[in-house]
Amino acid sequence: MTHGVLMGVRCFEELEVWQEARELCKLVRDITGKGEFARDFGLKDQMRNSSGSIMDRIAEGFERGGNREFAQFLSIAKGSCGETRSQSYRAFDYRYIEEEELKELLDRTSRLCRKLWNLMNHVQGSDLKGIKYRKF
Fold first, then answer.
1. For the whole model, what pTM was predicted?
2. Which of the 8 DSSP states describes residue 135?
3. What is the CATH number of domain 14-125?
4. For the chain, what is the radius of gyration of the CA atoms?
5. pLDDT in tens, 19-72
6. Which residues contact 111 (CB under 8 A, 6 or more apart)?
7. Comparing C-alpha atoms, which of 1, 29, 9 is closest to residue 119?
8. Of 124, 28, 36, which Cα lies nearest the Cα of 74?
9. What is the DSSP letter of 33?
């Protein structure tokens, strides 16, 4: 099955934004598993959840089969990306991460937010309609 607005894309795993969100999620897991950060269960869990939410919302929106719903879930993913970026500052302010790690997190989240925004606008601006599953 091909998603209406993304000709040739058969599954969410093929989406560059999902692949980048997955890499960000792995990076966040690595960073939050070290030192004092690993013992701050609140912030660690928040940051892991928000970064995981990015890839999950992209997948969920894609799988719903409608362009309008896909755009809505991309918007939610973008919000989670901003949340991860904000939490990165908190981790730095609490001295859980070094400046280099902060810079990498900020670069990745900023780039991913831009790509989500661009994809969301593309999906919303398309006059193609997504494929809805038929009920049997």
1. 0.88
2. P
3. 1.20.1440.60
4. 16
5. 999 999 999 999 999 999 999 999 999 999 999 999 999 999 999 888 889 999
6. 20
7. 9
8. 124
9. T
Quote the tokens at residue 106: 């900020």
- Give the DSSP letter string of 44-102: HHHHHHHHHHHHHHHHHHHHT--HHHHHHHHHHHHHHHHHHHHHHHHHHHTTSS-HHHH
Residue-wise pLDDT tens digits, 74-107: 999 999 999 999 999 999 999 999 999 999 999 9
Encoded amino acid at 71, one letter: A
Residue in the structure block whose two tokens are 């004092």: 36
- Structure letter (DSSP) for residue 134: P
